[in-house]
Design brief:
Blueprint (H helix, E strand, L loop, with lengths): L18 E4 L6 E4 L3 H19 L5 H16 L10 H4 L4 E5 L6 E4 L3 E5 H6 L3 H16 L2 H9 L1 H10 L3 H4 L4 H5 L3 H6 L5 H17 L6 H16 L13 H11 L10 H11 L3 E2 L7 E3 L2 E4 L4 E4 L4 E5 L4 E5 L4 E7 L5 H9 L4 E11 L2 E11 L5 E11 L2 E9 L1 H16 L2 E2 L3 H4 L4 E7 L4 E2 L14 H7 L7 E2 L4 E7 L2
Parallel strand pairs: 3-5
Antiparallel strand pairs: 1-2, 4-5, 6-18, 7-8, 8-9, 9-17, 10-11, 11-12, 12-16, 13-14, 14-15, 15-16, 18-21, 19-20
Helix pairs in contact: 2-5, 5-11, 5-12, 11-13, 12-13
Bound molecules: zinc ion (ZN).
Zinc ion (ZN) binds next to helix 5 and helix 11.
Length: about 500
């Protein structure tokens, strides 16, 4: 988590029209919601929101590697073929790693392809990475987002969602997250139709095999996703939950790849891939903040605050949002960007549409603070009561924003204050120095069943079965010497 002023304002005010547009993946015309120019504009704007929502995983070597594999697949895609219109061929495509443990890959319209570090951990060789990136390039080339936009009238919903509460006026941090009102979020959780997914799979086989990859490796990866899904259920948004039944997709890829030469052993491509992800952070990264015993800790920024009981905490790169279970109250936290309590409070107070009820100096332990309670009218005319609390933490001004409907506010006032006044410095070295779990590579030296090769103790929360899935093997499977295993470890 890094603090930057977060502005998820919906700036691309695009109404969904209906135009006959060329689709590079087929060369045919389809009814779409956006022109290619509009798609590129939406992608550009949304890519900034994605970076703010998830954070980017900074590992220059790994970024270069993913881009290299992505470009190789891209070069054999419809977006770069000689017969394709220049409009598409001249559109740059970027490949970005998101700092999220969720297993996902996605593409924004206009050429922004993302893969999470969670996804990279579960892939086992370069061919698998190529098929995942090729699938996403397929969505871009077939213009599936624009087709969905036309079919679902996506843009109108976005406009209403973005206007719900005056984010721009009040700087209320929770709003976009709660309604997922940002265009980027809408696009991320966009459910493509079954036909669109199957088309992207077919394009994935086409692009990755033309680029010299073994596209059947997609089958192994889908089998892995299937195992994860069986273990964890449908609870989280991942590559599978927004996609058709993996069994059907595996069957389809088998059919599409039937004519190809037998599966390559792929050892070189596997070693190259595994070396690229050596040291990758696995699961949640505690350095970016974590909750333990109802306290939120941010070791990198050295602060903590209590999380109210009955609130769910969502930790994002630029803000922390706490939502009451019944969504009657919201409490957000982020950096104010101001240099003093006075300037932070002044900036808040000079906004129009505020009716200030009380204001005054406060304290969070040794740190000076300033609080304002006010009623504010939102863009759609609704009134909310807000408590804004600025705290001066060694020269950095952080802000809490708690709000609820005026009639519900008194019930939450004390709860908000407990968190705000409970803000303090982390002293405990065990919290400050907490390291994430990372992938470490180990070459097998003797033939043995997989579970015999695991270390005696695995870092929490990893269990042997999960490590087997991570390596795309069964627990009792015989492993040959020379094979490289991915093991979760904590650096000391
Ligand atoms: Zn897809």
């Amino acid at each position: 988590m890094i603090f930057r002023g977060l502005a998820l304002a919906l700036s691309a005010l695009l109404w969904v029209g209906c135009t006959m547009e060329t689709v590079p993946a087929t060369g045919e015309k389809r009814f779409l919601g956006y022109t290619w120019q509009e798609e590129s504009a939406i992608g550009k704007q949304s890519s900034k929101e994605i970076a703010a929502l998830f954070g980017l995983y900074r590992d220059p070597q790994l970024e270069r590697y993913v881009t290299e594999v992505g470009n190789r697949v891209l070069a054999s895609s419809h977006l770069r073929r000689p017969g394709t219109a220049e409009e598409f061929r001249n559109t740059p495509v970027t490949f970005t790693i998101l700092d999220s443990p969720v297993i996902n890959a996605m593409a924004l319209p206009g050429g922004y392809v993302y893969v999470t570090r969670g996804m990279l951990a579960y892939l086992n060789n370069e061919d698998q990475l190529a098929t995942v990136l090729a699938h996403e390039i397929g969505h871009v080339a077939a213009r599936h987002a624009a087709r969905q936009a036309w079919q679902q009238q996506l843009g109108q919903g976005l406009l209403l969602g973005g206007a719900l509460i005056g984010q721009g006026v009040l700087g209320l941090p929770a709003q976009n997250l709660l309604n997922l009102g940002g265009m980027a979020a809408e696009l991320l959780f966009l459910r493509y139709s079954r036909d669109d997914e199957l088309e992207a799979d077919q394009l994935s086989v086409d692009y990755s095999s033309r680029a010299g990859y073994d596209s059947r490796q997609a089958i192994r990866f889908f089998q892995t996703l299937n195992r994860i899904q069986e273990k964890e259920g449908q609870g989280m948004p991942n590559f599978l939950s927004t996609h058709p039944n993996p069994g059907d997709r595996i069957q389809r890829i088998r059919e599409l790849t039937a004519g190809q030469p037998p599966e390559k052993s792929g050892t070189a491509a596997s070693a190259r891939y595994l070396n690229a992800i050596d040291g990758l952070v696995l699961g949640e990264d505690p350095r970016q903040g974590f909750v333990e015993a109802n306290v939120f800790y941010h070791p990198a920024l050295r602060f903590r605050f209590p999380v109210p009981r009955g609130f769910k905490l969502i930790n994002q790169p630029a803000q922390v949002v706490m939502v009451e279970n019944q969504k009657r109250a919201f409490l957000g936290f982020d950096g104010s960007g101001e240099k003093s309590l006075e300037s932070a409070a002044a900036r808040f107070l000079k906004q129009s549409g505020l009716r200030v009820i009380e204001r005054g100096p406060m304290r969070s332990g040794q740190f000076p603070a300033f609080a304002v309670v006010a009623d504010a009218r939102t863009a759609n005319g609704q009134v909310v009561r807000v408590m804004v609390y600025f705290v001066d933490y060694r020269g950095s001004i952080y802000q809490f924003v708690g709000y609820a409907a005026p009639q519900a506010f008194d019930a939450f006032r004390g709860i908000f204050l407990q968190t705000m006044q409970g803000f303090g410095e982390i002293q405990d070295a065990r919290i400050l120095n907490r390291e994430p779990v990372r992938l470490a590579l180990e070459t097998v030296s003797r033939p043995a069943p997989f579970d015999d090769l695991l270390p005696k103790s695995l870092p929490a929360p990893f269990k042997p079965e999960e490590v087997a899935i991570l390596n795309q093997v069964d627990l009792k499977q015989a492993i040959e010497p020379g094979r490289i295993l991915k093991l979760p470890t904590v650096r000391r």
